[in-house]
Amino acid sequence: MSTTRIILRSLLACGLAAPLLGVAAAQPRPPAALQETMDIGDEPGRVSTEEVSISDGPYARQMVLFRSTEAPGTVVIHSGERFLYIVQGNGRALRYGIGVGREGFTWSGQVQVSRKAEWPDWRPPPDMLQRQPYLPRFMAGGPGNPMGARALYLGSTVFRVHGTNQPETIGQAISSGCFRLANGDIVDLYDRVPVGTKVIIRHKATL
């Protein structure tokens, strides 16, 4: 077995060889720290089905009071609060608990959902492979993929709202700029949010 394959096997065993996404020039512009794209604690091969949801506690999916001037259907992400909202109108929103970017990997802006995918594949971009040649060239979508059951692509950026095979990380700052939900919650969100939906990302809450 080659040295490269031995290193890859070791990294996979430690859960260190599955970054969320590569970084490319995009709007809104991500932080410079995003040149390092490895995620902390992802576990390729760990199985989590699409039925897994956050069922209790503050990160459980629930209808809440939410003051906003945005039109119903707009998605608002408050990464500092660890919540994603779908505006319902009449001062209410459907709220989901999320995992967010770790320190140095947070960002804000306004985009649209440009694409949707079920059980998304993962293909490291060429610039990532140049920096980290031990990474797999392709990881098929499925219950063992860290991208989870569904993905919503955010404009022309490299970021997504997606599922995770680690639902215990919801509420934590662990990613490289993407927003993760438990698989059951991303499936629910996926069915409610069409392509073209306005998405507002805020790092801190605003009144």
In short:
By secondary structure, this protein is α/β, with parallel strands linked by helices.
Helix and strand topology:
Layout: H1 3-13, E1 62-65, E2 75-78, E3 83-89, E4 92-97, E5 100-101, E6 109-118, H2 126-131, E7 150-154, E8 160-162, E9 173-175, E10 179-180, H3 183-192, E11 198-202
Parallel strand pairs: 2-11, 5-9, 8-10
Antiparallel strand pairs: 1-4, 2-3, 3-4, 6-7, 6-11, 7-8
Account of the 3D structure:
This protein is α/β, with parallel strands linked by helices. The chain has 3 helices and 11 strands. The protein has a 9-stranded mixed beta sheet, covered by helices on one side. Strands 5-9 form a two-stranded parallel sheet. Strand 3 (83-89) and strand 4 form a beta hairpin. The chain starts with a helix and ends in a 5-residue tail after the last strand. Mean pLDDT is 76; it is low at 2-45.
Keywords summarizing the entry:
single chain, 207 residues, alpha/beta, 9-stranded mixed sheet, two-stranded parallel sheet, 3 helices
Number of helices: 3
Tally the beta strands. 11
Arithmetic mean of pLDDT:
76
Q: Determine the structural class based on helices, strands and strand pairing.
A: alpha/beta
Identify the overall geometry.
Answer: globular
Beta-strand proportion: 15-25%
Radius of gyration from CA coordinates: 17 Å
